[in-house]
Design goal:
The chain is about 5% helix and about 25% strand. It contains one helix and 17 strands. The strands form three sheets. A nine-stranded parallel beta sheet has the order 2-4-6-8-10-12-14-16-17. Strands 1-3-5-7 form a four-stranded parallel beta sheet, with no helix packed on it. It has a four-stranded parallel beta sheet with strand order 9-11-13-15, with no helix packed on it.
Length: about 230
């Protein structure tokens, strides 16, 4: 805990083989990007709080869960200016406010989620008003309710072939979407108003060629004017 807290000129960090990042460990440090290896199992409260130069976060691929071990997970990157995020493993947080570390991260622009993670939890990227592009891989099977609610700048979204369900209001207020891409052969089931706020007259829904007719008849998906 607090190992490098306040090291305001610390601009480069290598975390090879590290297993735990303690509370406020790097708060107020100066690095612009951080790559957290798959060996890390736990990140504590305010670990990167007030790292104002921090623009890129990579959670490297790993087999085990990465646990955000703190009562308020939103404190981990509080005050950082993260624009680009890569998630390569399963994340776990059980907090008193039930919010992800990326909740209302209003500087975030690009998200890529690949191996390991199987679910986008409820409200995971809620209120990320600068978020523009999202790519999620084949391991994701579920997008929770309000997962991307309020992402009013998002223009492009792509999900993998194993997605099975999308929760209620998952894309509420996502009015700027122009490209929505599905690699899933079967249209995922949608909760109440999951896709309602997407401009279905302008947004192009890209689906596998053999699935076009299925999407044209599926609940909520059939409302897209352009399915190709």
């Amino acid at each position: 805990d607090f190992t490098f807290s306040g090291c305001t000129k610390l601009s480069n960090v290598s975390l090879d083989n590290i297993k735990t990042i303690g509370n406020s460990c790097f708060s107020k440090c100066a690095f612009s990007k951080i790559s957290i290896p798959g060996t890390v199992s736990t990140i504590g409260s305010a670990a990167f709080e007030d790292c104002e130069n921090l623009a890129e976060v990579t959670l490297q691929d790993g087999d085990g869960k990465l646990c955000f071990d703190c009562p308020y997970s939103t404190s981990i990157f509080l005050g950082a200016k993260v624009k680009k995020l890569y998630i390569g493993r399963d994340l776990y947080y059980s907090t008193s406010d039930d919010r992800s570390p990326f909740y209302r991260m209003d500087t975030l622009e690009d998200v890529e989620i690949r191996n390991g993670e199987t679910e986008i939890s409820n409200s995971m990227f809620y209120g990320c008003i600068s978020l523009k592009t999202v790519i999620i891989g084949d391991d994701i099977t579920k997008i929770g309710s309000k997962a991307f609610s309020g992402c009013s700048s998002m223009t492009s979204f792509k999900f993998g072939k194993e997605l099975r369900s999308i929760g209620a209001d998952a894309f509420s207020d996502c009015t700027a979407l122009t490209s929505f891409t599905s690699d899933a052969i079967n249209p995922p089931t949608c909760g109440s108003q999951a896709l309602d706020d997407i401009n279905k007259w302008e947004c192009i829904l890209h689906v596998p060629a053999e699935s076009i007719e299925a999407y044209k008849t599926a609940d909520q998906w059939k409302n897209f004017l352009k399915i190709e």
